[in-house]
Amino acid sequence: MTGPTTTTAPAPDPVSGARSRAHRRRAIATTVTLTALAAAVLLASLGAGDITVPVADVVRALGGRADRPTTTVVLTWRLPRALLALVLGAALGLSGAVFQTLTRNPLGSSDVIGFNTGAPTGALAVLLTGAAGYTRTALGALVGGLATAALVYALGGRRSMATNRFVVTGIAVSAVLTSVNTWLMYGADTSVAARATHWTAGSLDALGWEQAVPALDEAALRTSMIGYRHGGPAGAHAALAPTPVPDAVLERARDAVRASRALSLGGIDVVDGALTDTTAGVQLRPGPDGRWFPFTSFGEEWRPAAGCSADPVEAYRAARRARTARPTTR
User: pTM for the complete prediction?
Assistant: First the structure.
């Protein structure tokens, strides 16, 4: 009679462990260095301009201890634009990382694929009709960008965006739209062409807190940063919105999670493209890289949690563990 077979777990690889620790240290050092540089540039930008403000006075203004003229220059005129530049630059970098994750290609950025060219086409179309205005121009740019995305996807990405065909199609569409934009500019009046050039290049001039506050949404920024920490660019993408997947994928994942639960307390519903267990206060969102990202309820928000996995059952268990360790309210 043969005894039970004993399986010995493989010993951890010390080389891979050392590499992982070294990579983590480099990532932390890089993050700290870039954060310090960003803070230094922010302070320098608050003091630079036609009215030069010493760094010491900038710090006093930020602390509410400066005189009225310095406070007006630093806090009212310059701080909104400086914060907008910092946050919008970070958002552009994050969007590029998400694009590269979606396309699995280092060239898969929004400017190469053509989305950045399609948005100005829509804005130019609105400006040329004479229906100028911030809202109309922004809507035209949004429609132009979405139409370009749909065209590139239809021509080169229906099977998979992680192919060179998708990127090459985007480059071709971008070249065509660049020619269209140039033709529209040449045919426009001088005043319209000047406004279009200013809009296409972008500018933070004359922007104040009324424009900065919507862009500085603290909750959205915090959630996307937590998602990036737990899952990289794909985690940040999932924190903003679930990646659309076929209904069959959601149903298979839901059935697998239901079968793994010891007690069937409450149901698991598909809400806005995510698997939501309202009773347990957890949610699973599909990401752009095929993994499932766990979330836990926090007041009226869904906060990312550690433990993303290609297996929805493992991601669900990670969400339950995080939910147990996290308070329910602020």
Answer: 0.57
